[in-house]
Amino acid sequence: MAEKVMVKGTEAIAEAALRAGCRLYYGYPITPQSELTEYMARRMPEIDGTFLQAESEVAAVNMIYGAACTGKRVMTSTSSPGFSLMQEGISYIAGAELPSVFVNVVRGGPGLGDIQPAQGDYFQATKGGGHGDYKLIVYGPESLQEAVELTGKSFDVADKYRTPVLILADGMLGQMMEPVSFPDFVDEKELPDHSDWAMTGTKMERDAHRVTSFNIDPYGLEEMNKRYQARYKEIIKNEKMYEEYMLEDADVVIVAYGTIGRIAKSVAKMAREKGVKAGVFRPITLWPFPYEELAKYNDQAKLFFTVEMSAGQMIEDVKLSVNGKKPVEFYGRMGGVVPTPGEIFAKLMELV
């Protein structure tokens, strides 16, 4: 890791992707992530990569589909309305078992909404925004350094499991500036070899490769789905990530992710100054969600307190973890309003 440099969130993710071996980017500008697209337009020619601004998000996701068929590391980025437009293509990419990385810098909604930070895309990200029985690996970083590290990891796990991966950030994370250490550029010769399935041209002396999610035979399609589900079980087993903060003796478990997970740590400190033993459980993988890891606090905690920049979406996964054994309370702001530590603390003290 090099010395730290001051950088904006969207640009940090873009540079991290380049250093992870991404040389193909197709996207369409939309606030608050347009700087990521601009950065790729500037940097890709410098490292012999390919940048193309598509005519829409629908076009961009299908370019990703085609490029991913070659086995190369590919990425696109967008914000909430644009990500909605990509859902059909993402379902096709998941069905075709193609490694690819998506970035959604979430903004206020529903509809056109505004350009302020929000977390209202959690259901879409973790429950499958498109059609069919598929999943995305979803990361929710809390800082720019973590976003950089998770960007590199996203490409690695996408290749490992032949699946699309989503980095779910928000407008605050995308627009803030922080000091970040970037890893060195990967050696492209050491990237995973996908020659057993990738479409690399017909001149090679091998059988033809076909990449598709289509199977007219329902039994054949069911077998494909069984293969996907077996892979998802492996991902659940191996890839869950989470952070535990001051939970050793906590009576109150605050559950939050991304930017709010960061704010929640300040709330836990404020609560302890008032004699309330609070800690934070922060899921880093939003899918697979760390159900069992959160559930281990069911006996210890008196209260679970979920905080989100939404009307309450992750709270459903928290309730599945708690399984009715303890109360689960909620505080949220919507439409791009970021709750302050003070107002979250006030709600927590009201509850306890």
UniProtKB/TrEMBL annotation:
InterPro entries: 2-oxoacid_oxidoreductase, PFOR_II, Pyrv_Fd/Flavodoxin_OxRdtase_N, THDP-binding, Transketo_C/PFOR_II. The keyword Transcription regulation does not apply. It comes from the Bacteria. Keywords: Oxidoreductase. The keyword Oxidoreductase applies. Pfam families: PFOR_II, POR_N. Residues 15-196 form the Pyruvate flavodoxin/ferredoxin oxidoreductase pyrimidine binding domain. One of its GO terms (molecular function) is oxidoreductase activity. Residues 250-344 form the Pyruvate:ferredoxin oxidoreductase core domain. This is 3-methyl-2-oxobutanoate dehydrogenase subunit VorB. The gene is vorB.
